[in-house]
């Protein structure tokens, strides 16, 4: 019995020619995401939106070519119309090497100008604290700010903004709750004190509802920036977020300690693989407990700025616990970061 491999699939696809380019689909860089599960094969064919009708034949041709490979029982090719021009390598831009945009249907959110993810890879590093204070700083700067709590299992934004109750529904859209001038939506508003007990597929659907069934802005008052508080790790939520909306970039939050840096590094690499730009690194809880300098090393590794090194301050924690605006010594750090993002 022949062993089915990715290379045998690629070899078959080299027999399919892009008629306009005059070269095969592999050489043209149209095929990506080859997945083999036992005797089933799947892959994506990425074309420019302007070529959608002219190149529709490629899907059928590619499926037919792979179907005759020994060991293949079924083939599924997904034709995606995306702008996939390579992103130029530039250390200043936050990319470690040339990459292409992830080939998914990234429809922009209605009336939202910019979407930025705040992530860490590890829990307990103050990621939600940074996300909340950045959103508040954006609002103080005169911009319309929104905050999406994408931590479905452990939402903390309702408490940190002193918000409760379920959003009202108008014309099929949830109306965000407003805390200190920031429009917010969270699974915590829906479940209250109850746990969200959901399997992976439902998590993605829940995220999509929070994203697209929320009226973040209007034609007359669009949202300038939606900050997304990501959950720890590199799982379903992160992949779904990259698939469902065109993220304008990611902020990586870490403490200086080595164990947090290792997870933050994995998180940063994940975003790069998904074609999401790294914006800045924020080092949180600097001081005698966790030390300092780790954030700077992480920023240097990925050629981005260390835009904030926030000292351990009990007042930040206290403000978050009672839903008040933090106004301590590190408030300027959040203002400075928010200014760079605008």
Give a short synopsis of this structure:
The chain is an alpha/beta fold and 342 residues long. It is built from eleven helices and 15 strands.
Tally of extended strands?
15
Q: Report mean pLDDT, rounded to a whole number.
A: 87
How big a fraction of the residues is strand? 15-25%
CATH topology of the largest domain: Rossmann fold
Query: Into which percent range does the helicity of residues fall?
Result: 25-40%
Q: Numbering strands along the chain, what is their spatial order in the largest sheet?
A: 10-11-7-12-6-13-14-15
Low-pLDDT segments: 83-93, 95-103
How would you characterize this protein structure?
With 342 residues, the protein is an alpha/beta fold. It folds into 2 domains: 6-81, GMP Synthetase, Chain A, domain 3 (2-Layer Sandwich); 115-341, Rossmann fold (3-Layer(aba) Sandwich). Helices cover 32% and strands 22% of the residues. The protein has 11 helices and 15 strands. The protein has helices at residues 6-13, 57-67, 127-140, 157-160, 187-191, 200-212, 236-244, 258-273, 294-301, 314-322, 331-341; strands at residues 17-18, 23-24, 31-37, 40-47, 74-81, 115-119, 145-149, 169-170, 173-174, 177-179, 182-186, 225-229, 249-254, 278-286, 305-311. The chain has an 8-stranded mixed β-sheet, sandwiched between helices. A 3-stranded mixed β-sheet has the order 3-4-5, with helices on one face. Helix 3 crosses helix 11 and helix 6 packs across helix 7. The longest helix has 16 residues, at 258-273. The protein is globular and about 65 Å long.
């Amino acid at each position: 019995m022949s062993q089915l491999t990715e290379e045998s699939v690629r070899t078959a696809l080299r027999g399919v020619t892009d008629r306009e380019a005059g070269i095969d689909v592999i050489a043209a860089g149209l095929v990506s995401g080859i997945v083999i599960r036992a005797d089933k094969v799947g892959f994506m064919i990425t074309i420019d939106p302007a070529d959608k009708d002219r190149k529709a034949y490629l899907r059928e041709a590619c499926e037919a070519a792979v179907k005759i490979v020994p060991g293949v029982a079924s083939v599924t090719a997904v034709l995606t119309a995306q702008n996939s021009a390579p992103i130029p390598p530039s250390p200043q831009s936050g990319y470690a090497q040339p990459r292409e945009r992830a080939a998914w249907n990234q429809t922009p959110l209605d009336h939202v100008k910019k979407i930025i993810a705040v992530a860490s890879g590890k829990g307990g590093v103050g990621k939600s604290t940074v996300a909340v204070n950045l959103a508040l700083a954006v609002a103080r700067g005169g911009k319309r700010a929104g905050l999406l709590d994408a931590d479905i299992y452990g939402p903390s934004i309702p408490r940190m903004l002193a918000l409760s109750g379920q959003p009202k529904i108008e014309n099929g859209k949830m109306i965000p709750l407003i805390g200190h001038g920031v429009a917010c939506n969270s699974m915590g508003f829906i479940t209250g004190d109850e746990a969200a007990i959901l399997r992976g597929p439902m998590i993605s659907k829940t995220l999509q509802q929070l994203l697209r069934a929320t009226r973040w802005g209007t034609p007359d008052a669009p949202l300038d920036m939606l900050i997304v508080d990501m959950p720890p790790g590199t799982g379903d939520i992160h992949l779904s977020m990259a698939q469902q909306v065109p993220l304008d970039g990611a902020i990586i939050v870490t403490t200086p300690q080595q164990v947090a840096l290792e997870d933050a590094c994995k998180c940063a690499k994940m975003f790069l693989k998904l074609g999401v730009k790294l914006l800045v690194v924020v080092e949180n809880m600097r001081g005698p407990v966790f030390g300092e300098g780790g954030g700077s090393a992480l920023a240097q590794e990925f050629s981005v700025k260390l835009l904030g090194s926030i000292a351990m301050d009990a007042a930040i924690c206290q403000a978050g616990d009672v839903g008040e605006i933090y106004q301590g010594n590190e408030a300027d750090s959040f203002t400075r970061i928010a200014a760079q993002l605008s």
